[in-house]
Amino acid sequence: MVKRIFMASVLVLCMGSAIAQAESKELTVSAAISLKNAFEEIGRLYQAEQGVKVIFNVGASGDLLRQIAGGAPADVFASAAQKDMDEADRQGLIVSATRTDMAVNSVVLIVPAGAKTSVKSFGGLSAAAVKRIAIGNPKTVPAGRYAEEVFNYYRLLPAIRDKLVFAENVRQVLDYVSRGEVDAGVVYATDAAARPEEAKIAATAPEVSHKPVIYPIAVVKGTKNETPARAFIAFVMSPEGQKILHKYGFRTGK
Amino acid sequence: MDESVFFSIRLSLQVAAVATALIVLTGLPVAYMLARKDFRGREVLDVICTIPLVLPPTVTGYYLIILFGRNGFIGKYLYALTGWSIMFTWYAAVLASYVVALPLLIKIARAAMESVDRSLVNASYTLGHSELSTALRVILPLAKRGIVAGTVLSFARAMGEFGATLMLAGNLPGKTDTMPLAIYSLAGSGEWSQAHGMVLLLTLLSGIFLYIANRYSRRII
Questions:
Q1: Which chain B positions have a beta carbon within 8 Å of A132's beta carbon?
Q2: What's the pTM?
Q3: How far is A176 from A112, CA to CA, in rounded Å?
């Protein structure tokens, strides 16, 4: 019996070290969830070129920042807002010299594709027929903060505050709208493009109505994989990487 | 503590109280049937009622959205008739807590009712009491400890419900953010100090409930 337990322990340890071995050839990228589809494609190409496996940890930029601050083993941080990257920089969590702006997005109002209540503009949100509006939780989701800025620009916030439903990340907003659980939602243009058959764009927020949606990327300080991490950022900024971001609806090359 | 914390505490207690009341009202008849009736599909009914005990709450939440969402199998008709949907309301938190906590009462009450001495039940029938009267005057009082333990555990579980609630009721500050949801938000935005009070309160209350449930359930066996 004791022998068996011993053998089992040895086996588990061997497996553990095998996993640890594999991990050394991996790069962990904590990315804003709006980058998901574009980054997955970039990751595949990067892996093919450099032979380093890329693992993506996607979520709301604020949550990712909190994870990195808590010691999550991320090598690269890509945020959907300057605010979260500024915060990471201030707390000394990133290698400042590697910080680069990589893409620009726009903010759109979406409605369920088969919606009866037709909201055609941000102003239409104050109509009585619009009962629920989903936005990202402004505390952790940059898209939610941009949404609030747009609402403020149109002086809508007092009229619609009670209709707001806070989602944990921008893709959850998209999901709520796609399933028709809410009447409208605010996401990025690139998210709306991800499920065109279920959610349609009702209006695009003018650039003056919110802070520019610029995505910064940087190497996380203290990573053991600084070389592949720098290479990943270089790849994102290369014509090939920028072309993929462009394909998914981001604006690039400024 | 600020107002939003008090709101979360009050909402959690309110949701747990309403859910527990519904659990006792519906769970006891089900537990009685499972314990004392022999019918086809009895164990299937038990599994259906108690499977949320072992399912991840996200799976339970998923089913509830499919059933009660605005475009769900039931929610669709409700919305068409009344223009109202349970999603993102505190009723959704009650529904989630109800479904997740119901199995605890059913499991424990069923076991307690099954352990009631058959000869006492038979004596009651022989003395001319109807089934309802026997259930209320003999079985329920003898199974009381198990029922109380099950109720207390259900309340504690309902108060701590998170996964299914998050999916069904959203996390709306001042509307549906029960203590577990509020703690999750506060931790997500780095406001740990605000969450301390609620974390301690939930731990304390859960500990007390567990203690009460243990004291009651130990004496039935």
A1: 88
A2: 0.78
A3: 9
